[in-house]
Write a structure and sequence with these properties.
The complex is a heterodimer of chains A (111) and B (115). Chain A is an all-beta fold. Chain A is built from no helices and eleven strands. In chain A, the strands form two sheets. In chain A, strands 2, 4, 5, 9, 10 and 11 form a six-stranded mixed β-sheet that branches. A five-stranded antiparallel β-sheet of chain A has the order 1-3-8-7-6, with no helix packed on it. In chain A, a hairpin with a 2-residue loop joins strand 6 and strand 7. The relative contact order of chain A is 0.34. With 115 residues, chain B is mainly β. Chain B is 0% helix and 55% strand. The termini of chain B are far apart. Classes of the chains: A mainly beta (111), B mainly beta (115). The interface between A and B is medium-sized, with 18 and 21 residues.
């Protein structure tokens, strides 16, 4: 069975801290891994990763994929209270348009 | 960028009634729509995938007669929860993908409460 596992499930930090969120996967015919941020409503897209070792960066957020070890990390530096959200990891597979989601990491950034 | 509009954002209905949720792609043609359900503190669970003009493909364990999905046009898909019960109370989110839009664009979600 295809699965996506995120860790930790919950994380509480102080403003200014750096956090690393983890996502491991076991899916057949893996094609890509996506990261989303979900606040109160719909998930918003952060990154899509398809190749190993290439870091994607957007401001204080960055992410990288390791296709050999089957995992990805999402880093957030100098966290702010506005980073508080659930971060979701999802994978796509060849021959299918479905996204397989992990359970998410709930990040709380305290002032 | 691609925008998906989902309505209503919140609905409260009586047990036994039906509720329709709409999902519209505003600036692209959505060849594929996905409907998810999310329980509190849990991830998005895919309910069904629909392609324009054809029947939806439901995930295992999802009752197709209870959750009716219609994708009659390239910009509109609807999910109807029929004969709703309190256990159907949940957060429902749609996602759309177009031929030219490789990404997955999510609607803002619908909070359904069945009383």
């Amino acid at each position: 069975e295809d699965k996506v596992v995120q860790s930790p499930l919950s994380l509480v930090v102080h403003e200014g801290d750096t956090v690393t969120l983890n996502c491991s996967y076991e899916v057949t015919n893996f094609r890509s891994l996506l990261w989303y941020k979900q606040e109160k409503k719909a998930p918003t897209f952060l990154f899509m990763l398809t190749s190993s070792g290439i870091e994607k960066k957007s401001g204080r957020l960055s992410s990288i994929l390791d296709k050999k070890e089957l995992f990805s990390i999402l880093n957030i530096t100098a966290t702010q209270t506005g980073d508080s959200a659930i971060y979701l990891c999802a994978t796509t597979q060849g021959g299918s348009e479905k996204l397989v989601f992990g359970k998410g990491t709930k990040l709380t950034v305290n002032p | 960028g691609a925008v998906v509009s989902q309505h209503p954002s919140r609905v409260i209905c009586k047990s036994g009634t039906s509720v329709k949720i709409e999902c519209r792609s505003l600036d692209f043609q959505a060849t594929t729509m996905f409907w998810y359900r999310q329980f509190p503190k849990q991830s998005l669970m895919l309910m069904a995938t629909s392609n324009e003009g054809s029947k939806a493909t439901y995930e295992q364990g999802v009752e197709k007669d209870k959750f009716l999905i219609n994708h009659a046009s390239l910009t509109l898909s609807t999910l109807t929860v029929t004969s709703a019960h309190p256990e159907d109370s949940s957060f429902y989110i749609c996602s759309a993908r177009g031929q030219l839009n490789y990404g997955y664009t999510f609607g803002s979600g619908t909070r359904l409460t069945v009383v």
